Amino acid sequence: MRTVKLVALGWFLALFYYNFRDPNFSWLDERLAGIRIMGVLQRIGLVYLIALACYLYIKPKYIALTFVSLLIGYGALMIYTPYSLPNGEIVKGLWLHGNNLSAWLDNLLLGANHVYYATAKPLAFDPEGILSTLPAVATALSGILCGYYIKPWQTSQNIYPSGYYKHCLRVLTFTFNTNKQSTMDTKLCNNQLRTSDVMLCTV
């Protein structure tokens, strides 16, 4: 349900605009017909859904394996998979703005009218595109793995993270606002930090 809300909110914000100063402005043509399919909130929703599914249904060691596989797989695809440019040239292994495998896939599946960099050359693409979602999922999984690492493995032995790891977690949550930071610090000091808290911080 949270994923649906995030995706819907992302689309709503993309559509919630009207240029009253321009008499020739067409909301249907410029906003609805060219809606950005992927976006920041849409990506957060998708990554949250995948990470949550991994957390609920996959053992920690397989989450770690998935994390490594996503990063290696993404890098291998970007480097070794050939793709064609609009001029017919076949290339591979490029990491240029508007000229890489991720951009090619966004241009092919989403279309130039539905991405953020619609005028990028030679390929229109979205920074929150399809293929680039893979490392984003890996980032969320790294948060879950951090949660498993600091979580007591045996509650009966009352094993909690040391002061060093508590400090690292405070660094991870540095970008939170004051209220959220205070809440995380309180949980951390009271040894009540959950895996879901770290996963939310990472996402």
Task: Explain how this protein is built.
The structure is a single chain. The protein has 203 residues and is mainly α. The chain has 9 helices and 4 strands. The chain has helices at residues 2-15, 27-32, 40-57, 60-80, 101-109, 133-150, 163-172, 178-189, 195-202, and strands at residues 83-84, 90-91, 95-96, 99-100. A two-stranded antiparallel sheet has the order 1-2. The radius of gyration is 21 Å and the shape is flat. Residues 154-162, 171-191 and 195-202 have low confidence and may be disordered.
Helix content: 55-70%
Average pLDDT confidence is 79
What structural class do helix, strand and pairing data support? Answer: mainly alpha
Biggest sheet: strands, sense, closure?
A: 2 strands, antiparallel
- Overall number of strands: 4
Beginning-to-end CA distance, first to last residue = 16 Å
Oligomer: single chain
Q: Are there runs of 5+ residues with pLDDT below 50, and where?
A: 154-162, 171-191, 195-202
List the secondary-structure elements in sequence, H or E. HHHHEEEEHHHHH
Q: Which strand-content bin applies to the residues?
A: under 5%
| Shape call | flat
- Tell me the radius of gyration: 21 Å
Strand order of the largest sheet: 1-2
Q: Total helix count? A: 9
